[in-house]
Amino acid sequence: MASLTSAYPTSKLRAKPGLLERLDLPRRVVFVAAASMIIVVAMLMIFIVWQGTQLFVKDGYSLGAIFDAKWDPLADTPEFGILPFILGTIVVTAGALLISTPLSVGVALFLSEVAPKWAKSIVQPALEIFVGIPSVVWGWLGITVLVPFLADTFNGPIVISLPIVGTIFSMPGFLTGFSWLAGSLVLSIMVLPTITSVSYDAFRAVPQELRTGSLALGTTRWQMIRHILIPSALSGVLTAVVLGMTRAAGEALAVQMVIGNSPTLPEAITQPMTTLTSQITLDMGNTVFGEPWQDALWTMSLVLLVISITSVVLVRVINKRRMGS
Amino acid sequence: MTANAGSIGRSSGAKPSLKGKASRGSILADRAATVVLWGTGALVLLILGSIILHFAMAAWGVVSLSFILDNPSQTTLGGIMPVLWNSIYMLALTMLIAVPVGLLGGIYMAEYAGDNIVTGAIRFAEESISSVPSIVVGLFGLILFVDDFHWGFTALAGALALTFFNLPLMTRLSEQALRAVPQDERSASLALGATKWQTIRHVVVPLAIPGLITGVILTAGRVFGEAAVLLFTAGIGTPPHYNFMNLDITNPTSPWSPFRPATTLSVYIYKLNSEGLGAFKNQIVDGSAAILISMVLIFNLGARFVGRVLSRKLTAS
Amino acid sequence: MIKGTRRFGALAIAAAMFAAACSSTGATPTAEPTDTPTPATPAAAMASVAASTAPVATPAPTTNCVTGTITTSGSTALQPLIQDAATAYAAECPGATITVNGGGSGTGLSQVLAGSVNIGESDVLANTKLATPDANSLVDHVVCRQGWIVVTNLDVTGVTNLTTQQNQDIWTGKDTNWNQVGGPDLPIVLIFRPASSGTRATFKKLVLNGMTEATGGTTLTLDTNGAVTTAITTTKGAVSVIGFSYYNDPTNKPLLNGLQLDGTDATIANVGSGTYKLAADGNLYTKGDATGLTAAFLQYMVGPEVQGTIIPKDSYGPISK
Q1: Mean pLDDT for chain B?
Q2: I want to staple B276 with a disulfide (CB 3.0 to 4.6 A). Which of A69, B281, C20, C271 is the partner?
Q3: Cα nearest neighbour of A28 on chain B
Q4: Are residues B109 and B92 in the same domain?
Q5: B205: left (phi over 0), alpha (psi -120 to 50) or beta
Q6: B230 and B103 inside one domain
Q7: pLDDT tens for residues C130-188?
């Protein structure tokens, strides 16, 4: 590459700096472009914080009334406890991560340690295509394929004929397919590329000498992966999981389409439930600007913003610890 | 945890399991692990393959040239030309803003940014926006552009909201592409007496072009599929029959105008699923989803191909 | 120094944004001056609409063509009708473009109030959603009657009618199995519309008499006619409420078991005669009196073409004479 020097547009490079450059304009312009992101984030935060606190400021609800389990906007004194939605987001996200993390880390290990070149050159583009599939398409697949499949499975003669499981599954509410499980399954596929690619980078960052050193000692590849690679890359994998968590918690359309949106906490993984994002999409269009109900939805958006900012900070803390040690 | 890794290099005796010849059990475990890891890779391909197969089968007999080029119809299958047009239009409008700003921002971060509080703030902002849920960005656009600015649902409002959402990605990819240019190139150029800006403009940026193009195409793929942001900003409706001869961009009836509502393909899928009517509703959704996935495939494979060809050309010269 | 200035610039912009946010959301809403008082009741609104359409009732009615561009947003229940009427109007009047957006009744009301759209469509009256001064700044134009029907999955055989009492028992969770209302031994799965939706509010008012609905394990909430229809067809024992236009859709109808209400068929004729009670007015709101293309389009909506042809085709009811 360095040989390219001969191909340089030498005349252009030797030209006298123009007036604009003497005024340091290029540096200022690129700085403004980069700093525009600060402005965008500042605007976004100010807006959401402003809107999200209207419920307290304008409508006079206390923080305690918001972090409460009772959500009844139609009551004479409307109640806007958003706890079920927060907990709903937490459990759906947790479910998605439980399914997705082992699978994603497995794929990352496969790509970084096991896969021959040809396999890598198929699986890696496949993962990129996963990223590109829009959430409406995931939702459409969820509602037309996954939900009926789950409903049929839970109602199927095999499941129902099982001794204890059958009794549980023939209870009402296990029927619909719109469920915590459906939401977590859809999300687990949606976050798979995120967790995989970040973990993959973490595994690749482990120095090659550690691998060869371990193998030279006569360990098997799996022992090397278990005892050296995974511990060394753990903070990177943790970062991957946090990033996956953020994406899962913020996903709206696909989840809303399959989760059933029942504003209560589920008693079982096969029951419908709700999340912050699905409740926002459900009610935002039907409420008017400035009414307490919509203000409560903005408060939920604020909670989502807090979750994502917290995770950004969390990732930084994890990385700093990694750099530090 | 990382201390572990460090200690192994020094004293291998710290971990008894690493000592000596591998036992039969551990070889078996290794075999099993290899099988499982191959299995995860295969599973990813299986899922993707079945999704593509599902839509290929569902779209069979739906997607044709007339499906792509016709206007929507209530009584027949019709086509999706206006929404496909809107998707492409919105993509172009968004990239028109996001690419220059993202490239310039990437230049600052790669070439100028010092290790100070402003750089830290930019990085924090970059990471924050990319983790903010798209629905929150959409709602922000709704309040700011649609309601406060009285623009109503317009393509411009949607494009700006999409820009907010994708600027960090574009900036980061540009920064990575520029950083990948070897330091020697910069030194050589500076040694020729070029200024820093001349070096960036005539040496660093041209060398980074393959990476930059890959970045642009990957960002484009994400913009193309986004729906949640646009639901609240660019509008959701059945588009009118466009008159492409109307080139007056200030006229809201012109398909070239940014001051008109623009339902894109992914928003159209959402709309049909939620409010669609007519005998062909499901076929149209399947066909639209198949086209959307094909576009994503084309974007991804295109990014790889263009990146490879360009870097080969540049290194060969 | 330069750096400081720059940072200040960014701050100033952020501060300006903040100020904009404050002024737009914090300030008391300025009531737009209205030339005519807003009709207090739907009946009065209808009267005013009827009065304004009087000239149309000439032997050979012609469409009043006005060129321009208007946008509407709001109720998804009314969207099919407005869309078809807008398409028909634009076909007759080439210089006119009417863009129809959905979004929900609340969006329609908010946006017409904010001046972002020309017409806001709502299933419910503005004064049930908006503060009184805001509601008074809007003018109601009733353009149709819309009906809803209680539908079940096809496996709920033998059930063709539910009385108001039975509906109340089912939707409040008192009855949980279809065999309690003469159907098969099958658990009832309730599919609600969101509590904020016009459909839910209308059903709760007219059928449930304001009773509190069941919540929990056996209930789903889905936000649109399309999602509800898909869910009913795939969920055993499911019951929900959808608009006539969605029920009568040729794709949907064979997949759904539509029920009578108190022994009355869910038909447009019965909505018109008042014997089928699960029905309400479709309201189009403008900010102040409509002018230009908006006025012409609203006039067209209550004219013979929409009322006589498009409304029956899309399964809505004409406004009462």
Answers
A1: 83
A2: B281
A3: B108
A4: yes
A5: alpha
A6: yes
A7: 888 889 999 999 999 999 999 999 999 989 999 999 999 999 989 989 999 999 988 89
For chain A, helix, strand, coil in percent to 5 are 75, 0, 25
| B256 and B308 housed in the same domain | yes
- Is residue A241 a part of any domain in this protein? yes
Last-in-domain residue among B37, B58, B79: B58
Using an 8 Å CB-CB cutoff, list chain C residues near A144. Answer: 230
- Specify the CATH number for the domain of residue A137: 1.10.3720.10
- The residue out of B16, B42, B58 marking a domain boundary is B58
Q: Which residues contact C5 (CB under 8 A, 6 or more apart)?
A: none
Q: Does some domain include residue A48?
A: no
Torsion sign across C-alpha atoms C126, C127, C132, C137: positive
Same domain, B115 and B241: yes
User: What are the chain C neighbours of B271 within 8 Å (beta carbons)?
Assistant: 102
- Nearest-CA distance B246 → chain A (Å): 32
Parent domain of A118 = 84-287
pTM above 0.90, yes or no: no
* pLDDT higher than 70, residue C52: no
State pLDDT tens for residues B198-243.
888 888 988 888 888 888 887 888 888 888 889 888 887 777 677 7
Interface test with C, best of A288, A300, A301 (most C CBs within 10 A): A288
Q: Are B135 and A250 contacting, i.e. CB atoms less than 8 angstroms apart?
A: yes
Q: Which DSSP state fits B80? A: -
Best of C7, C11, C70, C99 to substitute, by most chain B Cβ atoms within 10 angstroms, is: C99
Q: How many domains does chain A have?
A: 1
How far does C98 lie from chain B, in Å, by closest CA?
A: 8
Pick among C67, C87, C97 to test the B interface (most B CBs inside 10 A):
C97
**Cα distances (angstroms) measured from residue A211 to each of A110, A225, B17, B20, B229:** 15, 8, 15, 16, 45
- Using a CB-CB cut-off of 8 Å, the residues of chain B touching C3 are 118
CB A183 within 8 A of CB A261: no
Do B92 and B23 belong to one domain? no
Instruction: Dihedral sign for Cα A74, A80, A81, A82, please.
Output: positive
Within 10 angstroms of residue A106's Cβ, the number of other Cβ atoms is: 22
Contact B2 A322 (CB under 8 A): yes
Task: Show the domain range for B10.
Answer: 1-58
- Tell me how many domains chain B contains: 2
Residues in C 23-52 with any Cβ partner in A closer than 8 A: 25, 29
What lies within 8 Å, CB to CB, of C112 at 6+ separation is: C73, C74, C118, C119, C120, C138, C285, C286, C287
Nearest residue to C79 via CA among B235, A291, A289? B235
Decide if A3 is inside a domain. Answer: no
CA C258/CA C254 separation, integer angstroms: 10
Predicted complex ipTM: 0.81
User: Does any domain span residue A14?
Assistant: no
B67-109 tens-digit pLDDT? 888 888 777 778 888 899 999 999 999 999 999 999 999 999 9
Same domain, B179 and B79: yes
B314 vs A76, more confident: A76
Q: Residue C194 contacts by C-beta under 8 Å, 6 or more apart in sequence?
A: A261, A282, A283, A286, C200, C221, C223
Same-domain pairing of B31 and B152: no
Q: What is the nearest CA distance from B280 to chain C, expressed in angstroms?
A: 8
Instruction: Please report residues of A whose CB lies closer than 8 A to that of B8.
Output: 210, 213-214, 228
For the range C167-170, what are the long-range contacts, defined as Cβ-Cβ under 8 Å and sequence gap of 24 or more?
Answer: C167/C207, C167/C208, C167/C261, C168/C207, C168/C208, C168/C209, C168/C211, C170/C239
- Residues B52 and B99 placed together within one structural domain of the fold: no
Please give the pLDDT value at position C168. 95
Facing residue for A277 by CB, picked from B107, B112, B133: B133
